[in-house]
UniProtKB/TrEMBL annotation:
Keyword check for Transcription: no
Transmembrane segments: none
PANTHER family listed in its UniProt record: ASPARTATE KINASE, ASPARTOKINASE
Pathway note: Amino-acid biosynthesis; L-threonine biosynthesis; L-threonine from L-aspartate: step 1/5; Amino-acid biosynthesis; L-lysine biosynthesis via DAP pathway; (S)-tetrahydrodipicolinate from L-aspartate: step 1/4; Amino-acid biosynthesis; L-methionine biosynthesis via de novo pathway; L-homoserine from L-aspartate: step 1/3
InterPro entries registered for this protein in UniProt: AceGlu_kinase-like_sf, ACT-like_dom_sf, ACT_Aspartokinase, ACT_dom, AKii-LysC-BS, Asp/Glu/Uridylate_kinase, Asp_kin_monofn, Asp_kinase
Sample GO molecular function, one term: aspartate kinase activity
Organism of provenance: Streptomyces narbonensis
EC number: 2.7.2.4
Free-text function comment from the UniProt entry: Catalyzes the phosphorylation of the beta-carboxyl group of aspartic acid with ATP to yield 4-phospho-L-aspartate, which is involved in the branched biosynthetic pathway leading to the biosynthesis of amino acids lysine, threonine, isoleucine and methionine.
One Pfam assignment: AA_kinase
UniProt key word Oxidoreductase: no
Key words, A-Z: Amino-acid biosynthesis, ATP-binding, Diaminopimelate biosynthesis, Kinase, Lysine biosynthesis, Nucleotide-binding, Transferase
Family statement: Belongs to the aspartokinase family.
Name used for this protein in its record: Aspartokinase
Amino acid sequence: MGLVVQKYGGSSVADAEGIKRVAKRIVDTKKDGHQVVVVVSAMGDTTDELIDLAEQVSPIPAGREFDMLLTAGERISMALLAMAIKNLGHEAQSFTGSQAGVITDSVHNKARIIDVTPGRIRTALDEGNIAIVAGFQGVSQDKKDITTLGRGGSDTTAVALAAALDAEVCEIYTDVDGVFTADPRVVKKAKKIDWISFEDMLELAASGSKVLLHRCVEYARRYNIPIHVRSSFSGLQGTWVSNEPQGAQKVEQAIISGVAHDTSEAKITVVGVPDKPGEAAAIFRAVADAEINIDMIVQNVSAASTGLTDISFTLPKAEGRKAIDELEKAKSAIGFDSLRYDDQIGKISLVGAGMKTNPGVTADFFKALSDAGVNIELISTSEIRISVVTRADDVNEAVRAVHTAFGLDSDSDEAVVYGGTGR
Ligand code: ASP
Ligand code: MG
């Protein structure tokens, strides 16, 4: 039996009871004959509470200190979990990200893992320990400062360790039974997916599905580490994410994997842009120089009489202010009229590799939205995804309508959400 990496999210270890329940599950895995490495998140809403605290003492906390603060959350849970395991009569040792060899670049609050050197973890395992690692953190290669990987980064820690330790599987334990055909908090009839390809999972994650982070799936695909997303509250098989289904996951690839939605973005419209070469380049250079990632872009047909056009794009709401400031600064150089900012938008995406070979998916998607009375503001597509922007108020209704129209509704049990405040 091989090495298993298990990751437990904040809602699975929200209190002492949760920690004891998780400890028992870890010990059971060890008893099955596996070597076990556990990556753990901060308890419950600890990270949010620490962020609130930081903002109370300083409106813009310094990145280095902010990371130092946030990593404390995972240190608490890792130590408690190791204690709980020892209490069950098994050996366990906890390690910070730095001790576990998670080396990152030095971009505070959203560092990227550049290397993993898990020497101490190997030694701990060889000595018969269960190794517990604090998720979401590392140490920067050059300055040796403590860094964090961005919200939800523990999943990435788990996959990175699984790759470095050549694990059989990376199990991600969460508060739902797996990856669903839509967010079970919105669509009660969402179905659990038994197996999904890395490709489709990447698109779902990029489109706002919160079960797995995009970066984590990207990492898993690069190193070909199968991920098993499952609940720490039930004993059920969850969702396998891998290149190809194996053994018990033998299922046919669905045409449509699921519907994702995202209400974390805003839309900026640059009004009155001269319709000549170089304008779009100048606009997006200004935004890119501020390290802002944009999502969808639409340029309208220019009005022949004025020679002016409008360009709209979407970006994370959190970056909205900064983008507006940067564009205002470049206004006279670029030569547009004005900016419009709209944060009452939502995005709905339909994802599935099967749409490559099934004509009519797009038409059915738009029909479902129009039947639900939902107006479409922007459209973008990839080979295996169609996304639209609508009013934020319409999103939940639109997701349910599309889910039903594509026959994704389950006819049995309602999806269960075991924990978490969704905060
Ligand atoms: N505790 C961190 C967060 O809440 C990391 C994680 O949970 O993965 O974002
Ligand atoms: Mg968390």
